[in-house]
Automatic annotation (TrEMBL):
Entry binding sites for Mg(2+): R423, R453
Encoding gene, per UniProt annotation: ppk1
Protein name from the UniProt record: Polyphosphate kinase
Catalyzed chemical reaction(s): [phosphate](n) + ATP = [phosphate](n+1) + ADP
Organism of derivation: Chromohalobacter beijerinckii
Function: Catalyzes the reversible transfer of the terminal phosphate of ATP to form a long-chain polyphosphate (polyP).
Cofactor: Mg(2+)
UniProt-listed PANTHER family: POLYPHOSPHATE KINASE
Length: 733
């Protein structure tokens, strides 16, 4: 495989990998360097604390967002999905500024700058973020305006700008503005009695230049015009007003621009320019000062809408003096200003994907499959008792878990159900089953993490719903987010109690289970189920850490055991034995784990890391990390599985986990990491990992200098891991 594409230049790919009907592709074996390694020639002892060995976390996070943006240029994705990737880039960038940039700015403002293992001070990181983001935002709008919009128009989807409206369309807009917009719009003139208003985080607004004298004798100046938040940002024109064969849309911002004069009768509107402010949206709940977490969060959710400003987006034609005026109002600097050549709120265009009926412009649909062992006419309790069931979402159905929980809710032999919920929804089938179970008289205990970022309001709502049904709701441990994905069922069978459990790498969320790759294990293994029971006891009660035999759990033993397993692999390599580890997770930032991987590499261990997002480890450094290869898979599905495989001297161990290799997961969260005790299931997961390691279509390899290069199949057979797994596991038509 040749590395021919870099993440910092416009990319494309014409090596799509759909399988021909009727062909059954084998899951690929690992073609990376493995086997018995000769003991390497000794290198001088390396300083593994050297900042040069670590990439900055925030800059690495930004690089992941850029890899997402690259998908908008990849013709192997359907056209509307390319638009989707461009909009996801916007959404990711919003959160990046709301949380990560806001945190850095807060450190600088308080003069409490802290550097990570990379040694870069926050001021320097902010400067680099600004430089990179300005380049990429400009590029994003160039891709939208010069590539995607023309391509969509060729397919009959058109976005009409003001200058392109026909007379009939302009008349329809005029009527819509009068009937739907004008009654709910609230202009705010700026003068001593009307100070600059507090604007909601990420809301669409306009700054308007006025000339003339109003009804009260006030001289014109400036006004702020907030766009009504109740209205969609994109409106579909009636079909009779569209050119034959076209579906056409107009932007709310264009409508307001076109009729701004009507909002200020008798005044002359000399200019009207859209802008959007991004605010600090991190919630600050101090465990020392909170007696009621739910009440504290409700208060913080209101404050989130009005946090300090971190970024200002303005139309690219906004005059400099108005931009400077806005920067002053929000206490921002010139580096925080982003001029955009299009709508400032691109994420709201996501509605197009569900609005148009164009399956030819979207990924082909599929039906998630089920393992062959699952029988629809047999109780799931009976099937789980016979053998563990492993599901790989979204290729295999998440509904099996929902069905099992509903069966448990209705089963008179089920006595108790305990579950953790991190991200779900108040109207989800999972919550509905728990409500039914509580109403059916079962002991239902739910550990809800209220602080799941941007899902706090939903979690508060579902907590209320469960409490009203009679379930016991616990908010976890104040100083530690409960991020573990666990479900525990107690059932009476033949006069004795038997435990069942579900453990997963992802959330109990039916929608994201169709988009994120995750593993789910349904088991009746006595030791594993007993450990899950103990973790729940630890969460709901008080006392010293309990004896847990099989599970690894954070914040107690997970980190130390992972370091020990990596070091164990290094010892095998030092003895001249075959040594290999494969780590697949979302992020790798924790310095002690990185140092352990460096030690393993120095010993000769082949380290294959599949890290979707942030990676602070620098691969390919002679004498330190030349045996480490890092790749990031970006494709149709969001890679979310956390899998850790160790060769272990011929006695392989494969673990799945809710935790990433990050400080927060290891030390500030409740996490679980569970072994695949069934050898066939463990072998299956290792086969899945091997498939990812030979992907040459959607795999980006991290270079020593921090850039990512897209692996190109060249003359070799193109292999897409996600397509291969989809073909292997989804239901056959």
């Amino acid at each position: 495989m040749d590395d021919t594409r870099s993440s910092d230049v416009p990319l494309g790919s014409d090596n799509a990998t759909s399988q021909e009907a009727g062909e059954t592709p084998p899951l690929r074996v690992n073609r990376t360097r493995t086997g018995i390694h000769a003991k390497p020639a000794p290198f001088p002892e390396a300083d593994l604390d050297d900042p040069a060995l670590y990439f900055n976390r925030e800059l690495s996070h930004l690089q992941f967002n850029i890899r997402v943006l690259e998908q908008a240029l990849d013709p192997s994705h359907p056209l509307l999905n390319r638009l989707m990737f461009l909009l996801i880039f916007s959404s990711n960038l919003d959160e990046f500024f709301e949380i990560r940039v806001a945190g850095l700015k807060h450190q600088v403002a308080l003069a409490r700058e802290e550097s990570g293992a990379d040694g870069l001070p926050p001021r320097q990181v902010l400067a680099e973020i600004s430089r990179i983001t300005h380049e990429q935002v400009e590029r994003q709008y160039h891709i939208l305006n010069e590539t995607l919009i023309p391509a969509l128009e060729e397919q009959g989807l058109r976005f009409r700008r003001r200058t392109q409206w026909t007379e009939a369309q302009a008349a329809w807009v005029r009527e819509y503005f009068a009937e739907e917009i004008m009654p709910v719009i609230s202009p705010i003139g700026l003068d001593p009695s009307h100070p600059f208003p507090r604007l909601v985080n990420k809301s669409l607004n306009f700054i308007v230049e006025l000339e003339g004298t109003d009804a009260f004798g006030r001289e014109g100046g400036m006004a702020i015009l907030p766009a009504p938040r109740s209205l969609p940002r994109l409106m579909r024109l009636p079909s009779e007003l569209c050119e034959s064969g076209y579906t056409e849309y107009v932007f709310l911002s264009s409508m307001i621009h076109a009729h701004a004069q009507e909002v200020f009768p008798g005044m002359e509107v000399r200019g009207c320019y859209q802008f959007r402010l991004t605010r600090n949206a991190d919630l600050a709940v101090d465990p020392e000062d909170v007696s009621d977490l739910a009440s504290a969060l409700r208060g913080e959710l209101l404050a989130r809408r009005y946090g300090s400003g971190v970024r200002l987006e303005v139309a690219d034609n906004c005059p400099d003096q108005l931009s400077r005026f806005l920067l002053t109002q929000f206490e921002l600097e010139a580096a925080d200003l982003y001029r955009v050549s299009g709508p400032v709120n691109l994420t709201r265009l996501m509605s197009v994907l569900s609005d148009v009926d164009r399956p030819d412009l979207l990924y082909r649909t599929f039906t998630p499959g089920l393992p062959r062992q699952v029988k629809s006419d047999v109780s799931l309790f009976t099937q789980i008792a016979q053998s563990d069931i492993l599901l790989h979402h979204p290729f295999q159905s998440f509904s099996l878990i929902e069905d099992w929980l509903q069966e448990a809710a209705d089963d008179p032999d089920v006595l108790a159900i305990k579950q953790t919920l991190y991200r779900t929804g108040a109207d989800s089938p999972i919550v509905g089953a728990l409500v039914n179970a509580a109403r059916n008289g079962k002991e239902v205990t739910v550990v809800i993490e209220l602080r799941a970022r941007f899902d706090e309001a939903d979690n508060l709502a579902l907590a209320s719903r469960l409490q009203e049904a009679g379930a016991i709701v616990i908010y976890g441990v104040m100083a530690y987010k409960t991020h573990a994905k666990m479900l525990h069922v107690v059932r009476r069978e033949r006069g004795a109690l038997r435990y069942y459990a579900h453990l997963g790498t992802g959330n109990y969320h039916s929608k994201t289970a169709k988009l994120y790759t995750d593993y789910s294990l349904l088991t009746a293994n006595e030791t594993l189920c007993e450990d899950v029971h103990m973790v729940f006891q630890q969460l709901s009660g008080m006392g010293k850490p309990r004896q847990i035999d099989t599970l690894l759990h954070a914040p107690f033993v997970l980190h130390d055991r992972l370091v020990a397993m990596i070091d164990r692999e290094a010892r095998h390599a030092e003895k001249g034995q075959k040594a290999q580890l494969i780590i697949k997770c979302n992020s790798l930032t924790e310095p002690q784990l990185i140092r352990a991987l460096y030690r393993a590499s120095r010993a000769g261990v082949q380290c294959d890391l599949i890290i979707r997002g942030m990676c602070c480890l620098r691969p390919g450094v002679e004498g330190v990390s030349e045996n480490i290869r890092v790749r990031s898979i970006i494709g149709r599905f969001l890679e979310h599985t956390r899998v850790f495989h160790f060769h272990n001297g011929g006695k392989p161990e494969t673990w799945c986990s809710s935790a990433d290799f990050m400080e927060r997961n290891m030390f500030r969260r409740v996490e679980t990491c569970f072994p695949l005790l069934d050898k066939k299931l463990a072998q299956r997961v290792r086969k899945d990992l091997a498939t990812y390691l030979v992907d040459n279509c959607q795999s980006w390899e991290l270079q020593t200098d921090g850039r990512y290069r897209l692996l190109d199949a060249g003359d070799a057979e193109p292999i897409s891991a996600q397509e291969t797994l989809l073909y292997a596991y989804a239901a056959k038509p």
